[in-house]
Automatic annotation (TrEMBL):
GO molecular function, one term: zinc ion binding
Source organism phylogeny: Bacteria, Bacillati, Actinomycetota, Actinomycetes, Micromonosporales
Naturally occurring in which organism (per UniProt): Longispora fulva
Swiss-Prot/TrEMBL cofactor(s): Zn(2+)
All residue ranges annotated as the Enoyl reductase (ER) domain in the record: 13-341
KW Secreted (keyword) present: no
Domain of life: Bacteria
Protein name (database record): alcohol dehydrogenase (NADP(+))
Enzyme class: oxidoreductase
Record InterPro entries: ADH-like_C, ADH-like_N, ADH_Zn_CS, CAD-like, ER, GroES-like_sf, NAD(P)-bd_dom_sf
Presence of keyword Transit peptide: no
EC annotation from Swiss-Prot or TrEMBL: 1.1.1.2
Length: 348
């Protein structure tokens, strides 16, 4: 077992600091990845702050990982030294339940093993991508195609698949009217992917401040939800709405924007429950749903799709010493649209 340089939160709500964490030896089917870039996800902040329950510390966040294979175990067949690869939100699962067998490991009935703040099969804690290296079973590693930079690819491992999965599942494409609620780290990828799938895309944002960005990213329409008239004007307009906001919104109002048989899918995770009036669903045979990332097979499909369409995240690359400031800026909505850590700078 070797120690690697990393940024970790020593305890809940504490600033992240430079440290070292152990990595297991490369096993029979393991891949050692030299991490080049790690995206910062809003869920990293939630977990450091224990917003979603008791966490394990020290915590090395990061589940948007892109890098290069530097060593493989003797039984590895999928990857070779020098390959461009990524790691997303989980690094293992039971591999036996109906969901794992169906390629839906994110819904593993035994519980997927998180890339960080999880417990590995060896009983030890998992540490994420704010580090120089990571060891992962080859079955949970993704190939990053040529044609997309590792820096702009890193956020696809969470933000990209979080939007791709529901858009594909609910058949976004030609003839479908899709609305993306929120134009942030998740939402901006939703706009890009929905547009590439051929859907008519609308952004629903609190104000018109990001309208130019939304249209440039591929939206056909942009509306301010801070204007109450918007909800009357757009009533019954959408077949699919994907809500990326991690704060509570008036779900009943947004359900009113759906056409008959429309679906409102939530991918954001507010800390508090959201009330829903049953009549908002009954009138129009509407559905309220949720979606969480994707399995390994679908994540690889997403990466291939994004590379084929020239889609990467809109990023601001930062050094390791800027991580805590980036956290503050994310909470102030001061990023367009994803921070990515240049891991070569962890010591700076």
């Amino acid at each position: 077992m070797a120690n690697v340089t990393a940024y970790a939160a020593p305890q809940a709500k504490a600033p992240l600091e430079l440290t070292t964490v152990p990595r297991r030896p490369v096993g029979e089917h393991d891949v050692l990845i030299e991490i080049a870039y790690a995206g910062i996800c809003h869920s990293d902040i939630h977990q450091v702050n224990e917003d979603w329950g008791t966490a394990t510390f020290p915590m090395v966040p990061g589940h948007e990982i892109a890098g290069i294979v530097s060593e493989v175990g003797p039984g590895v067949t999928r990857y070779a030294v020098g390959d461009r690869v990524g790691v997303g939100c989980f690094v293992d699962s039971c591999r036996e339940c109906v969901n794992c067998e169906a390629g839906e490991e994110q819904y593993c009935l035994g519980g997927m093993v998180g890339t960080y703040n999880g417990t590995g099969r060896d009983g030890g804690p998992t540490y994420g991508g704010y580090s120089t290296h990571i060891v992962v079973d080859e079955n949970y590693v993704l190939g990053i195609p040529e044609g997309i930079g590792l820096d702009e690819a890193a956020p696809l491992l969470c933000a990209g698949i979080t939007l791709y999965s529901p858009l594909k599942h609910w058949n976004a494409g030609p003839g479908k009217r899709v609305a993306i609620v929120g134009l942030g780290g998740l939402g901006h990828m939703g706009v890009k992917i929905a547009h590439a799938l051929g859907a008519e895309v609308t952004v629903l944002s609190q104000s018109l401040a990001k309208q130019a960005d939304g249209l440039k990213l591929g939206a056909d329409h942009f509306h301010a939800t801070g204007d109450p008239a918007t909800f009357g004007k757009l009533a019954g307009s959408f077949d699919l709405i994907v809500n990326t906001v991690s704060a509570n919104i008036d779900l009943n109002a947004y359900l009113g924007l759906l056409a008959t048989d429309g679906t409102l899918v939530n991918v954001g995770a507010p800390e508090e429950p959201s009330p829903v009036a049953m009549f908002a669903l009954i009138g129009g045979r509407k559905s309220l749903a949720g979606s969480m990332i994707g399995g390994i097979r679908e994540t690889q499909e997403m990466l291939d799709f994004c590379a084929a369409h020239g889609l990467g995240a809109e990023i601001e690359v930062i050094s390791g010493g800027q991580i805590n400031e980036a956290y503050r800026r994310i909470q102030a909505s001061d990023v367009r649209y994803r921070f990515v850590i240049d891991i070569a700078t962890l010591n700076s």
